[in-house]
Amino acid sequence: MKIARVTATPLYIELNIDILNINKTNGLSIVFVEVETDEGHIGHGITAITDEDVVATAINELAGPTIIGEDPMANELIWEMLYWQLSPRGQTGYAGHAVAAIDVALWDIKGKVLGQPIWRLLGGARSTVPLYATFGFGFFDREQIGEAAKLWRQNGFDKLKMTVGMNALKRRDDERRPLMEAIREDRIRVRNVREAAGEDAELFIDANCSLDQYHAVKLANWIEEYDIAFFEEPITHNNVAQMAEMRTRTKVPVAAGQTETLAYRFRDFITERAVDVLQPNVVIGGGYTQIQKVAGMAHAFNMPIDNGGAFPFHNMHLHAGVMNGGMVEYHHVSVECCKAFLKGLPEPKDGWLELPEAPGLGFEPDMEAVRELAGAAKSMGQGKG
Q: Distance (Å, rounded) from C-alpha 167 to C-alpha 182?
């Protein structure tokens, strides 16, 4: 059996988010990848949180042609081929996204050929995974975010995550708002969520790398009283030295890793004691082939792992497969995006997801929807030009 076709399609999914009578248009860029063998087996994968056109072009014009004719079951060999083709000098970024999408598709094929779901091929440690809901987006004002927390508690979630930082560093040029002003607002928002969610809820915050060390530490110390389970990506660039120092200056645990694409970055997080929780993501960080190794490193150092960076339906396989698997992020926007072009997705129940028994990923793309979304992405690209 050999790889006969690799196709990457950029998608732009625009959603109308209607929560608490707040109508908000939100969009997400995704690269959808299909890998087909000469025996007719088809696997699919995705990547996101990147420029969809750049990654799709890299796959269609460089990564895909590199592996045509190779054995689709040889995940290690193919991963190394793609690494040396796309990032031969240790670069991070787009290359890792391209490898991740292809690798996920290959594992989908492997599962279908062997008649097993991916989580069983990765070890089959458990058949259900716990979820935490990412609900607290910046478009909620300080009062609305508390009401949103109550809504998610009513929906069966007792683990909740909200964003902080408000892209403060990124928007210094157009918003002209001092970082101190942004984190003062965050302190109020966190307080409102804690009061609304109740003392028994686990509460996580995520700055998406949008603060410097000074303001990240300041915010963490301000909100210690609200029992924050972890502070995700508090510092820009996931600066290893600064996150390590931050851990000595606050009681709030630090988490990171959702956008890291090479294993050495996770090694540095561990050995430099920069984080309390690792957050690898299979659709960003090189796919199952690499992230199962990251999980192994974490296990050796007795460090917990959780899914960060959304896309629970792909990441649930890792956390159900390995013995040290943790929580999976049920990110509302990414979930709705997946529902727009994937069918057969599992539904949460009381804050848990049950893993599928169907082979491979256990769900399939709706190709008519993929074509429609691809057309929308193309139109947007032409509009930008």
A: 9
Virtual CA dihedral for 124, 106, 330, 168, nearest 10 degrees? 130
Angle, in degrees to the nearest 10, between helices 240-249 and 263-271: 30
Q: pLDDT band at residue 22, thresholds of 50, 70 and 90?
A: confident
Question: How would you write the chain as a 3-class SS string?
Answer: CCEEEEEEEEEEEEEEEEECCEEEEEEEEEEEEEEEECCCCEEEEEEECCCHHHHHHHHHHHHHHHHCCCCCCCHHHHHHHHHHHHCCCCCCCHHHHHHHHHHHHHHHHHHHHHCCEHHHHCCCCCCEEEEEEEEECCCCCCCHHHHHHHHHHHCCCCEEEEECCCCCCCCCCCCCCCHHHHHHHHHHHHHHHHHHHCCCCEEEEECCCCCCHHHHHHHHHHCHHHCEEEEECCCHHHCHHHHHHHHHHCCCCEEECCCCCCHHHHHHHHHCCCCCEECCCCCCCCHHHHHHHHHHHHHHCCCCECCCCCCHHHHHHHHHHCCCCCCEEEEHHHHHHHHCCEECCCCCECCEEECCCCCECCCEECHHHHHHHHHHHHHHHHHHC
User: Taking the mean position of all CA atoms in its chain, how far away is CA 179?
Assistant: 26
Say what the alpha-carbon torsion angle 357, 338, 143, 352 is, to the nearest 10 degrees.
0
The alpha carbon dihedral of 195, 197, 198, 200 has a sign of negative
How far, CA to CA in Å, does 142 sit from each of 160, 184, 220, 369, 372? 16, 11, 18, 36, 37
pLDDT band, very low/low/confident/very high, at 298 (cuts 50, 70, 90): very high
pLDDT, tens digit (0-9, with 9 covering 90-100), for 245-274: 999 999 999 999 999 999 999 999 999 999
Q: Is the pLDDT of residue 383 over 50?
A: no
Tell me how far apart the alpha carbons of residues 139 and 163 are, in angstroms, rounded to a whole number: 10
DSSP strand pairing (352-354 vs 128-136): antiparallel
Mean pLDDT of 343-358: 97
Task: Report how far residue 83's alpha carbon sits from residue 95's, in angstroms, rounded to the nearest whole number.
Answer: 8
- pTM for this predicted structure: 0.94
Measured distance CA(213)–CA(200) in Å, rounded: 29
Token reading at 305: 């792992």
